[in-house]
Amino acid sequence: MFQIPIVFHPIYSQLTLPRNHRFPIEKYQALFDRVLHQYPGDFKVHQVARPVHEDTLAKVHVRSYINDFISGEISEKSMKRIGFPWTEQFVKRTRFAVAGTIKTAQLAFEHGIALNMTGGYHHAHPDFGSGFCVFNDLALAAKQLLDNDQASRVLIFDCDVHQGDGTATCCASDSRIYTVSIHCEKNFPARKQQSDWDIGVDKHLEDDAYLSIVSDTLETVISAFKPDFIIYDAGIDIHRDDDLGLINISTDGVFARDKLVFNMAKNMAIPIMAVIGGGYQRDIDALTDVHQQLPRAARAIFGVNNR
Ligand SMILES: [Zn+2]
């Protein structure tokens, strides 16, 4: 019986943060627990075995930045831009999370679909991090697939509400990777970078208009670029209750988006992997309800009764 691969490590949620820090670090464990509880038998769990190696990180990032972050020599100003205080624990968590996305790419190559229960560090640039992102797992997973000859044309399809500015700069010089970002124009980062295709939507956008943008964009890019692998950032900060999003997508809208992306990949027989991306609400249960739409959609499209 086919079980959809999901990648997890308890360290995803293990990060001691200053009191009142806005980042909902508990969400990863909460989502993982929810998936196992709600869909017993539908998913096969793959634990991340080891942290990502420096040489792998160097496929995208400059050595001095990698070394400074890992050793703790990185400046306080640089950490401020990332948004977390530097700790050994944070380094470990970061390296396991990135390793998780790379592992997810390998599993999707083998099985056609795989999900990482974290990931989507699209604000990480080659030589600096920002917006809760240190190393660009999306660009790294793409490079790894290309280097292993497991793909020749990788589409990074980023639907987080914030622009994938770091992914754009990390992949700018590589014509084998096509970067698409569908984001809210009036949102972080203030200074946008140039993806291969940027769609900056207006504030307060609602389900129907949003879903037709996602569908038309994906259809167009698949027929024009002809990817043989899709990396999907399924950020849910598009949700109407999100603290950092500015558009008005419902939970049903999130489910419909994830389903349409998976469905198009499946129909075109293109392997697809997804990361959960951004999502910010103080109420972890409510936030988990929205993140849960991704595994729910994967199950609807790739589940054993739908193959
Ligand atoms: Zn975001």
From TrEMBL:
CDD domains: HDAC_classIV (cd09993). Residues 21-283 form the Histone deacetylase domain. Keywords: Hydrolase. The keyword Hydrolase applies. InterPro entries: HDAC_classIV, HDACs, His_deacetylse_dom, His_deacetylse_dom_sf, Ureohydrolase_dom_sf. It comes from the Bacteria. Pfam families: Hist_deacetyl. One of its GO terms (molecular function) is histone deacetylase activity. Belongs to the histone deacetylase family. This is Histone deacetylase.
